[in-house]
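Working notes for the structural subgroup meeting. M.R. asked for a predicted model of this chain before we commit to crystallization trials. I am recording the input and output together here so anyone reviewing the notebook later can reproduce the run.

Input as submitted:
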Amino acid sequence: MKPIRTVEVTPFLPPELECLRELAYNLKWTWDHETIKLFRRLDRDLWDSTGHNPVLLLGTISQERLNEAASDEGFVNQANRICQKHYEYMKAEGTWYDKTFKKPKSEAGTVAYFSAEFGLSDALPIYSGGLGILAGDHVKAASELGLPLVGVGIVYQQGYFRQYLNADGWQQERYPINDFYNLPIIPVKEKDGSPVLVSVDFPGRKLFLRIWKAQVGRVPLYLLDTNIPENSKVDEDITDALYKADREIRIQQEIILGIGGMRALKAVGIEPTVCHMNEGHSAFLGLERIRILMEEQKLTFAEAKEVAAAGQIFTTHTAVPAGIDKFAPELVDKYMADYYRSVGLSRRDFFALGRINPDDETELFSMANLAINLSSRTNAVSKLHGVVSRELFKDNWKNVPEHEVPISHITNGVHTRSWISKEMADLFDRYLGPKWSEDISDQNIWNRVADIPDNELWRIHEMRRQRLVNFCRKRLAKQMEDRGATLSELDEAASVLDPEVLTIGFARRMATYKRATLLLKDPERLAKILTNKHRPVQIIMAGKAHPEDQPAKELIRQVMHFCRREDVRAHFVFLEDYDMNVARWMVEGVDVWLNTPVRFAEASGTSGMKVAFNGGLNLSILDGWWDEAYEPHLGWAIGRGEVYDDTDYQAEVESNALYDLLEKEIVPAFYTRDQDRPPKAWLSRMKKSMLSLCPVFNINRMVREYTTQMYIPSLKRYGEFLAGGAAKAKQMSHWKQDLKQKWSGLRIGAVEESTGDSIKVGDDMTIKAWIDLGELTAEDVVVQIYHGPIDNCGDIADGVVIAMKPQADKQGTQRLFTGHVSYSTSGRHGYTVRILPHHKDTVSPFDTPLILWANQPQGVKV
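Returned structure, recorded in C-alpha cell form:
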C-alpha cells in the first residue's frame, strides 16, 4: 500500500549528545580516529553491524543506551572535546590555501570537481574502485588544505554490487537497496521545505533530478538522484547502479552528471570558476557551460567555448582504448541532437568535438575526446601514464611529435589519515611530531622515521598483522557459513593463516590486465613457497570483477580452486565483497603488497602507497606510480620493465621473476633474525620505504600540484577571458577563425645550413629558412627548428625545438628566418623546420590543430 504522505523521522538525541548529529553527517569522521572511537564506544557491535555508519547507528541504537551515554560524564566530556575540535576545524582559518594565495574567499573562485564515483567510506557505497577512491581522497585533501572546492557526483540506489562466490568459486552479484535517509547525506531543500529539483531534457520528456549533499569536512559534495515520483518508473531506475553495461543508461548517467551537475550547482547558488573532470564521464558539462555563457553573456558558440575551456581541466585515468566511454552516433543523436542544435551547432561540428575524423560516420563519439576538446589542460596520473596517454591520444594532435602532445602528469597520492592505522598514526605522533600529517610532504619530518625504535615499530606491525588475521578468519567463516559449510569446515576457517607468518596482500578490481593469476602460473612452485615448514608464506586476496566481465570472473574462479587445495587452504584466503573496509584492514596489516598488471596498463594505482604509510613493502611490476617510485632499497620490482610481443611468454618470464624474488630475497629477508629479535634488514627497508615514499605519494602533495599547476592558472585565465564582456575570448576566437582561413597561404621555401653534411661535436650550425607568410604576419606564427638524433626508423627521436628569428631580408613575398643549433653529442642527427600559430594567450602552441612542416628533414653527421 502506497503512503499518502511521508515524514522523515530522525533519532532523538539528549541535549548533551546533540553534537553527535553534526559529527555523523560530516564525513570528516572517516579520517578522524577519535570520532570513530567515540561512535564505536556507543555500541561496538552495532557500529560493525551498521557498516560503520554513524547515521544508521544513531537511528537504530536504543534510546536507553543514548540516555545512558548522556549521563556518562566521561563520554559527554569526550564528545564535547571532539565537537569543539570539529567546530574549530570548520572555521577553516589559516589553511594552506589561505596562507599560500592570500585571497579572501569571496575572491577565490570555486573549483567544481566532477566524478562518476566517490569512495569516501564503506558507509556510503557509491564507488567501485580506484577512480572513486582517488576522488574521495581528493575532496578530503581539498578540505584539509582549505581549497574553495565542491564535488559533484551521483548517488546510486544500489551502489555498485555486493559480491559472493558460489561453491565453484564463480562470482555472483546482489544489489541491496541503499536507504538514503540512513546514509550520511541530506536532501537539499527549498526554503519551504520542498526538495530542490533540476531537470535535463531527454527524448520527448524532461528528467527530474533531486539533489543530496554529503559534507566532507569543509567540502560539500552534491549528489544527483533520479529515483523520485516526478519521473517515470523507467527513468527512476537510471541512477540505480554504477557502471552498468547498457550503453543507453551510461549516456543517460553521463548527461545527468555533466549537464545535470552544472544545473544542480546553479540551483544551490554556486557558479564554478573551474570545472575539473575526473575522467571523461562528466564531459557534457563543457557544453552546458558554453550554453549558459551564450545565454547570459550573449556570446557565439566559439566565443563561449574559449571562456569555458579556460576554466576546464580534464584528468584521464585510462591507459587502454577500451577504458574510454564511446557512444554510437545514433545514440548520441537520440539524446543530444536537440541540445547541439540549441547552441547553434551543425551535426558535423558537434560530432567533431568527440571524433578524430568528423567526416567518418562510423567513428564512435568519445567522451575523452570531448573532454580534451573542451578543456585548456589535460593531465595523466603518473609519469609513465603521461607517456602512455600521449601515445593513446596523439591523434587528437595530428602531425605533433608524440612527446610534445600537450598532456602533462600529476601523480596520484593517498589521503593518509583515511588509510593509516591508528597505532601507526600514534607512533608517528610520538616520533615525527604531532604535526606530521599537516605537512605530509616535508622531507625533514620524515627523516625522523630513523629515530623510531625497531622493537616498537615491529611490535605495532605485528599487532596489525594479528588483527588482519583475526579479521580474515571471521570474514572467511561468514563466507563459508553463507554457503552452508559444515561445523568442521567452520572450525577449520577459525585457524587459517598465522599471525607470525610473512603475509602478502593482493586486492584490486579484478580486470584481466591486472593478472591476479600470475601468481598461479606454476601452482606447485607457489604451493612449495607457501607451505615451507621453516619459512612459510601466506596470501590474502580480494577483488571484484565487473558483472559483465566473464574472463575476469574466470580469474577469480581459478584463484578459488587453488586456495581450496588441501595443502594450501590454510595459507591462501580469498575475501569476498572487496570494499573500503576490507582494503583498510589489508593495507594496515600485510607485510608485502603485490601488484602484477601488464606493463603500461596500470595508469597509477594507489593501494601500494597506502601500504607504505603502514610499514608494508611493495612488490610490483614497474608500472603506474611504482615505475617512478621504485628503488632497490624500498621494495622489489618484478622484472625491469621488459615488454614482449608474446603475452604468454611475458607472463612466464614475470611469474618466474616473482617466484625467484620470493624464494631468494623476500622470504629470507623476513625470516633472517638474531635469536628472538625482529628482522633488522626488513625493518631497515620498512623505514627507508616510509622515509622516501610517504612525503611524495600522498594526496596533499597531489592536490597542491593540481592547485598550483591547474586550478590557479585556470582561475586566472577564466577571469581574464570573461572580463570586459569576454573581450579576450572574443579576440581569441576571431584570431583562430582568421588563422584557419589564412593558414593555407603559408609556405616553407628554401632551407639552408651553414655547414656541410658532417660537422664536429661542439660546432654550431646556422639554419636559414625562407618563409612565405601569405596574409599572416610574423607575430601570428613561430618558426622553429626541430632537431635531434635519428632513430632506427630514420625519424628524429625526441626532437628539441629552437625558435628562429625573423630577419629583415626578403625575397619577393618570402621572409628570412634564422636559428642556431649546437651539437654536443656525436652520431647521426637530423633537423627540419616547422611553423606553429603563436598568440600570447594560448596555453599551448598546439591549442589549434594547425602545424606546417618542411617537406623533408635534412640529415647531418656529427
